[in-house]
Design a protein that fits this description.
Largest sheet: 3 strands, antiparallel
Shape: globular
Helix content: 40-55%
Enzyme class: transferase
Number of domains: 1
Radius of gyration: 14 Å
Binding site for Mg(2+): 8, 60
Strand content: 25-35%
Distance between the termini: 14 Å
Number of helices: 5
Oligomer: single chain
Catalytic activity: apo-[ACP] + CoA = holo-[ACP] + adenosine 3',5'-bisphosphate + H(+)
Number of strands: 5
CATH superfamily: 4'-phosphopantetheinyl transferase domain
Subcellular location: Cytoplasm
GO molecular function: holo-[acyl-carrier-protein] synthase activity; magnesium ion binding
Structural class: alpha+beta
CATH architecture: Alpha-Beta Complex
CATH topology: Ribosomal Protein L22, Chain A
CATH class: Alpha Beta
């Protein structure tokens, strides 16, 4: 049963502008929004801004799918590499909200084209009673 659905779109140029900013501001943004694993993955790529944009979109989409729970942090949602497809790992407020909803599986898809990155998140499970 689908318990939640979220979608988000991010302009890659917006992330490029942030990454081109003062180093202290860039570091603050990256540490607030992305886990160490996400930063390592994105920073190793030539298309760094695109990878960050797609992951940012996934975090926003997950928050929407969960009903935008109060206190959720960007780092509560982590995009990790799965076997051929990205996987979302939830922690903190996101994990608590998912458990409360009865979520058993989180599906995510990422895409980018024409300067835009997008993500869709589907929460699957049995409705909590």
């Amino acid at each position: 049963m689908i318990l939640g659905l979220g979608m988000d779109v991010v302009e890659v140029a917006r992330i490029e502008r942030i990454l081109a900013g003062p180093p202290a501001r860039v570091d603050r943004f990256l540490e607030r929004c992305f886990t160490a694993r996400e930063r390592a993955y994105c920073d190793a790529a030539r298309d760094r801004a695109t990878r960050y944009a797609a992951r940012f979109a996934a975090k926003e989409a997950a928050s929407k799918a969960l009903g935008a729970p109060a206190g959720i942090r960007f780092t509560d949602v982590e995009v990790v590499r799965g076997a051929g497809a990205p996987v979302l790992e939830l922690a903190g407020v996101a994990a608590t909200a998912a458990a409360r909803l009865g979520v058993r599986r989180v599906l995510v898809t990422l895409t980018h084209d024409g300067g835009v990155a997008a993500a869709t998140v589907v929460l699957d499970g049995e409705e909590a009673r």
